[in-house]
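Any chance you'd type out a single protein's sequence alongside its tokenized fold?
>
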Amino acid sequence: MGNGKDKGKCKPGMPPVDPGEDGSRFRVTGPCSDEITAQCIRAQYQIPSGTKATRGNELGIFQGLNQHYHQEDLDTYWKHIAPWVPRGTHPKLKSINGALGPTNNRSLPGDEADLDFEVAIPLIWPQRSILFQTDDECYCTLSDYNHTGNCLTPACRDPEYPNPNAVPEEGGYQGPLMCGRYRPTSVISISYSGTEASWPARYMRRQCLEVTKLALQGVTVVESSGDYGVGGARFDSRAGCLGKDRDAFASGGGFSNVFARPKWQDRHVQGYLEWANVSDQGYVDSTWLLGPGLDGVGDAGAATSSPEKGKLFNKAGRGYPDVSAIGENFRVVLRGHLNRMHGTSVAAPIWASILMLINEERLSAGKSTVGFVHQVLYEHPEVFTDVATGSNPGRGGDGFKVKEGWDPVTGLG
């Protein structure tokens, strides 16, 4: 699975660094152009410090695939980089089917888990966060979703569910399955996932319908989309500055082979295709498309169709990403080290935090949460700051170019 970030130079098993009494080893001294912290994010996006903590409006963050945060890393970050957050602050654990939350093993904390909370908590404080933790492995068998394929190899089989490695002292999780056990938060951030080609289309259709149900309840799900140019997918870049910026590294993005383009995206995407003069490089294939928009009524049997020879993308597919946020050089404490991390795993919790803060103000004014916010964003592109130049090359291709307005590199901005 694409993890949506560069893990940098931090490697498991590295001994923790003694910060010394003055914490000099954790001191961030560079400008925001070189070292990103919560203060930089607040300044760049004009995010005020939080003052409210409405009960029930906590920020939800999903973790899975053996990603577990380490409290000592968080406390070190609070002490030296985000001192307005009290030491000992941590997310409230909502464990699903016996999943482990934090880890006490210094060599085991997941970079995704530490990163998510070190990005989000300083932005939303004094509001709290909730950790939705699963330990079940990802599904990769195709036959369970009415799709045939070679599922004879162990790597292609479904994992046992619930994960037999959860709650090992009890021989695995023995309780009832916990689907629907917890009340969802108004915003849920997911920082890592797989590429579209990694999943059967029926599986993705089911996931989309479940997210749609959440949206109808006023829940916004923010998902990153990868960091590997047009060969992967992505949610962010160094976008949204007060002035025009340059796309900092290969932002994923493009057009779906599974989901049809919704009507509220037509004007922006069609405008981009005409501006970029790439229509002759695209094909139109609705064989597998699920759509339009959220309807998901198509009968898809595969994750991707077979494009015309020499054609590169499906012009009829949903364009992505929708929006962007800074995703480079974020300073993180991981396994006792001060490191830099990059990618959409930085951008997703930033956007989730912004939406949660908006919900906080709306709730205090007696209004509802924003829920399905996409259409409103496309109706008001003027609120975004565009990335002026750049592209998202990947897998040997040049990728798409950036333009003012929507583009498949940084979205609306």
Residues 1-23, 141-153, 233-248, 292-305 have pLDDT under 50 and may be disordered. Residues 390 and 402 are 5 Å apart (CA to CA). The first strand starts at residue 59 and ends at 63.
